Amino acid sequence: MSDDVIVAHALRKEFTVLVKVGRLRRTRRLVTAVDGVDLRVGRGELLGYIGPNGAGKSTTLKMLTGVLTPTSGTALVCGLAPVARRTRLALRIGVVFGQRSQLWWDLPLRESFDLLRHVYRVPAGDHAARLRRCRVLLDLDPFLDVPVRQLSLGQRMRGELTAALLHGPEVLFLDEPTIGLDVVSRQAVRGFLAELGGTGDTTLVLTTHDLADIERLCHRLVVIDHGRVVHDGTIAALHERYGSRRLVVADLDTALPTPPTLPGAPLLRVEADGHRLVFVLESAGVAEVVAALAGLGTLRDVSIVEPAIEDVVTRLYRTPA
Ligand SMILES: Nc1ncnc2c1ncn2[C@@H]1O[C@H](COP(=O)(O)OP(=O)(O)OP(=O)(O)O)[C@@H](O)[C@H]1O
């Protein structure tokens, strides 16, 4: 039996929108937000679901969590049809959507968590253990007794994450979990999700525009554009497909009259009046390039620059779907 916790086939969602034509007239137009997405996500996977604005990410997540009914296609999450079995599914998944809160605005966090324990009928021992873990990892104690409406965005997001996890979900869906957070909160949330995903017990599906989230957290990346999957694979595969290459940066004590020619690693540019040479690693290996550079007798320092995911994703978004 497959251990996929999410299986979507030809998932499609259309919306009818009214658009203005001329000064007074309005006409109906069909918007295809998700256009035949196939997706399988295994238990314990950490999946980044990314794409440019309006690509269909949130709409996909809403269909997978039972908030929206697909126009056509099928989805099963934890073996359940999300809309038809929404209540049952709610016990098996956790959802953190930036714009929607599951906390009680006027209650302190601690009381919201208590209420959620009753809503989900979580045994007291399990609840206490999960809450303890979140308190430590997300540093909740300084604001556990503060009413939710008084929390900062970063504090509330840490509360939302906790709320989504107290019933021990198998899958956690996160729509832009670090949006608008300051550096400290962003690191806290990322670190927490990395730890959670690292256990292999919880499947994470994450949409984000913050590619640092992806690099830190996701093993697999699904990129959608105009509602269609344009890449499904590892980050390394994405770099390979779009030809991103590693660079070797050599700092020299003395500039050379002519830069060296290294087989398999062409010179990309010369900087700092000839004191810095940047090579592209093509067919050559790092060791042979470094050895050749060391042989020049003027090498002070050498570093390898990994390709930035921003570059490759920007290029991917520009490529027609
Ligand atoms: N309720 C709705 N009614 C009409 N159109 C909608 C509705 N929800 C989404 N859309 C449209 O569907 C398309 C996909 O929207 P969606 O919110 O899924 O994109 P997204 O990838 O999450 O974008 P972003 O990164 O900007 O959040 C967009 O063109 C959007 O305008």
TrEMBL record:
GO terms for cellular component: plasma membrane. Residues 19-251 form the ABC transporter domain. InterPro entries: AAA+_ATPase (IPR003593), ABC_transporter-like_ATP-bd (IPR003439), ABC_transporter_ATP-binding (IPR050763), P-loop_NTPase (IPR027417). GO terms for molecular function: ATP binding; ATP hydrolysis activity. One of its GO terms (biological process) is response to antibiotic. It is found in: Cell membrane. This is ABC-2 type transport system ATP-binding protein.
